[in-house]
Predict the structure.
Amino acid sequence: MSNSVETSSDLPPYRYSAALAADIEARWQERWAAEGTFEAPNPTGPLARAGRPAGDRKLFVLDMFPYPSGVGLHVGHPLGYIGTDVYSRFQRMQGTNVLYSMGFDAFGLPAEQYAVQTGQHPAVTTAANVANMRRQLRRLGLSHDLRRSIDTTDPDYYRWTQWIFLQIYNSWYDASARRARPIAELEAEFAAGLRATPDGRAWSVLGATERHAALDAYRLAYLSDAPVNWCPGLGTVVANEEVTAEGRSDRGNFPVFRRTMRQWMMRITAYADRLLEDLDLLQWTDALKSMQRNWIGRSEGARVRFATAAGDLEVYTTRPDTLFGATFMVVAPEHPMVAALTAPKWPAGTDPRWTAGAGTPAQAIAEYRRAAASKSDLARQETKDKTGVFTGSFATNPVNGEPVPVFVADYVLMGYGTGAIMAVPCGDQRDFEYARAFGLPIPAIQEPPAEWFAERGITSSLDTATWPEAFVGDGRYVQSGMLDGDRSIADAKRRITDWLEVRGRGTGAIQYKLRDWLFSRQRYWGEPFPIVYDANGGARALPPEMLPVLLPDTDQFSPRTFDPDDEHSDPESPLDRLDHFKHVILDLGDGPQPYTRDTNVMPQWAGSCWYELRYCDPTNTNSFVDPAVERYWMGPQPEVRPDHPGGVDLYVGGVEHAVLHLLYARFWHKVLYDLGHVSSKEPYTRLFNQGYIQAFAYTDERGLYVEAAEVEERDGGFWHHGKPVHREYGKMGKSLRNAVSPDEMYDAYGADTLRLYEMSMGPLDASRPWNTRDVIGMHRFVQRVWRNLVDEGSGALRIDDSPANDETRRLLHKTIAFVGEEMEALRFNTAIAKLIEFNNHLTGVVSEHGSCPAEVARTMVQLLSPLVPHVAEELWAKLGHTESITYVAWPVADPALLVDHTVEIPVQVNGKVRSRIVVPASADEAVLEATARADDKVVAALAGASPRKVIVVPGRLVNLVV
RNA sequence: GCCCGGGUGGCGGAAUCGGCAGACGCGGAGGGCUUAAACCCCUCUGACCCAACGGUCGUGCGGGUUCGAACCCCGCCCCGGGCACCA
């Protein structure tokens, strides 16, 4: 650290240096831990504290908890943590009981893969990583309640993850009541005949298996065949992002097959409308809400049935008004009707482009489906060329009776709508391209406006052969039967939908893009499912008293692998092999019987779907959270905060979780709410996305990243070991080799300086570049504060009991008011700027008088303490206080000192500032105008002209318009 | 392609109910302290013109509204993030 002050040898003995900071920080961290300073009392239970009751004012501040990685932290990680810590400390000084802790989302793939490579048990590496990260977080001075720290891999934690799974499994969604209810109530409705069974027979005549199936069809957690990327060579299912464009696995380069597999699913789609509507309750940014809305993807349209020889083919469309332009249909390769639609031979006169050169439709389709199955979702989506084959079958367009050919093409996805579309090539660009490629007719059904043709340099025409692309927009309907002449899409949609409904060919429908959540993994390092199967293969939920289902110990963490080309192999997860785990004899209420355990594990999302609730009551062994404790921290508080719907008061984390984690957690929370286990409708009331710390990264001529710390800048270029390198810019991290360790910052400046620098760099929600060179500025600031209060030679305080002068007091009270406002709004950068300004003023005062007024010193230390807690504690103690500054009341600004007697007002002539006048703060418009017009510079600027208009904004400006 | 952000000095950023553009920090220049240096303290630091007073320009680009626009409107460009053959 060439620019560190540590290189100088003859510093004053009590200068605030990195060494002094290290000493101060270590001492206060020890004392905080020893005294349990940050332990927030619960209203009841073991975490209640006799001497410190849980008051009415509570605040739950939550960070997105980290995955305990083996490489530890870099300075980009704690940005959000420092922000929440500053806010929590600020709130404690307002007399608020703050729940603030940190846990670890420790199940997941990296630990498992590390275990596979090294043979070390994930539990061992996880424990070591957690310990290391706890140490690093403590070094930052974060004010966590350590009693509440949780680890998702702890059986005392995942016991309750399993318990919540059972709650979901044992529930169904009552669409008319719009809420989840216990499955027993559904069974009662069936039994009482209030609800029809699937085939209409009486409940009493159904066998056990039939009853089981009827209930399973309603459960919020259910088993279903779901499409997955199966990689026999790895023996596991892989994510889209792990599949290359060639349809092979990232690791090992094995073939990956798209196929369906029996998987646990969560019926999150049942909650689509509530997840959408309740966004209105939340104090989230509009950007974030819109991401969730787009993901849920509600659309209004119609389901339309096209008759075929194989039965009705149903499509979903958002534009039923375009039905007259539908000239062909496309079904996804996985569509269940593909086989039935496949004609025995090509109809006479089939266009050769439709057959892919195959002798029969069956051959063409089999080949096409095989090719589609070997492509990843990603590859299917990236392909620009339109591919597909004709089934040999035709459907009948219900509005005009025209026969339309049915194709199989992979640009239609099984996962959305019905997996089949009606293609309207004149109004949809994808359909347009497909029609062009396959020589299908493209009749115009809406007349584009004249500008549309003008912009494309063609003459107006309804002959689509002259069109370069599909027309998407509003236009008068043509060649559309009953719609001809209509101009309103909304009106046309309504008319067509009514027409279809009357004739039984379709219905208005609401569709969501949101799909059910694939919830099982064939892996080792996750929560086992609390489910067993009886001799008939029927799933049975374990009773809560049998929880936790412990993850069994083993030293074989890899799944069984297969011949890489054996598409029809089936995964054998690590738990599958453990007979003592898999085969059990249990008494589930009907005597001891043999069962087989489910050998899937839950996804990493599971543990993070409810962790905020466990922070509330981490030691509870009777329930996942005590209801009274839950109500205190999470419930609405109509008396205290009428507009607050309950939930975590402030949740801070990266925008990468804007959709999945936040949606899954909201879903679980809503189920728990419906079942009466939690008291708020939403888990995270206010959400704040912190930005990323970015940094320069450098690539050599081969395009590989080199260690950024070793790069030097000279001669207008960048050099690494004498070779030129290219500068890039990106998120700080290991992959770009541009990470800066917090340890370097502690050594050079201390934790308080690092905290201050990260908070001063810019707004918390903005990404910003790391610049080590700039850190010194915040170190100098702390140093100046220290020097204003402490003699650097003797270490003695340099304060006095004289009152501060009027100017200093006014400035101090303005600073109090401003800093308080900015902290409340998480604008720490501007709060720090104001504190620096005040301290710069104070430097002048101290150099004039030789000491600082004690009253000013005390307040300054209080204002600084959330940001730089260690040095603030040290100064507070030096000022004679024995208690920690943590709960000392935040200073209150005197309103009388916030208003100035006189103000300086700019005077504009024709909108340009020509002068400034000093007037009493209370000056009215007449006084302002008169003063302005009497000003020499203004007179000069007017040059004898008389203003024809005068704008006076009291307190702001005067503008004379000539 | 769609959606969401964002473009302000050499750098990070202030200032948005439409009212003094550039707070604060870094970097740079000059001065003080010192035998000397470091540290520290003070002053200056958007560009251009001017000896100076002062003036002109200036918040990605082009228009517009307004007494007045970084901020509002229209049309573009660029950067970041997210989503995507979504029917």
Summary: The longest strand of chain A covers residues 221-231. The two ends of chain A are 60 Å apart (CA to CA).
